[in-house]
Amino acid sequence: MAAESGAAGPALACPVCGVTGPFRDHPRSGRRNASCGHCGARERHRLLALYLKGHPAEGQAGREPPLAGRRLLHVSPESILEPLLGDVAEYVTGDLTDPEVDLAIDLTATGLPARSFGAVMANHVLEHIPDDRAALAELFRILEPGGLAVITVPVVEGWERTYEDPAIDTPELRELHFGRWDHVRWYGRDLRLRIAAAGFDLEVWQPSPADCVTYALHRGASVFVGHRPG
């Protein structure tokens, strides 16, 4: 991956580390202000940090941190977010290949007890999983009633349907079609239907346009929160 470039750009706020200052660009992807110049948090980390802190969504009031007091499973955990999760009742990490996690799990069939977590967080995970519907069903199964599945993925909101094709099966083709060698789809607006089909009540948390400027977020970026009824 190409190195990120330093630049004396505008002072921007990072909700992960709390520092205000210039951010770094990502030349390869053409993303301006991609990462915090202090802690390195990228757009997806900053987006999720605002949600985790109870920051108000567009047109709404602020609220308590949504994961406080819950037993949390963090899938494919990002260490940069861990300091923001100190208010959870228990923090458990899981991944299929990372040897440093607490649980070695396949998200389509975890083998975990049903209704065993109050929240599951999967930040840019589902776009890597060929059978994402099975993964969503498994998230629903392992959540207790009232539990939350906190999901972020790359979404093209202008597309009605998700773009995926099992025949696109080499790193080179996946890079060309899906933007990364290890992605298997670009989600469209029907992501909402996939989450709902697993049984969830869906909340779409989205920061305001002004927050997108202040924190250098992708315009229109969203956190998809599946609420297990109960």
From TrEMBL:
Record key words, sorted: Methyltransferase, Transferase
Residues covered by the Methyltransferase type domain: 104-151
Gene Ontology BP terms: methylation
GO molecular function, one term: methyltransferase activity
Tagged with keyword Lyase: no
Keyword Methyltransferase: yes
UniProt-listed InterPro entries: Methyltransf_11, SAM-dependent_MTases_sf
Name under which the protein is recorded: Methyltransferase domain-containing protein
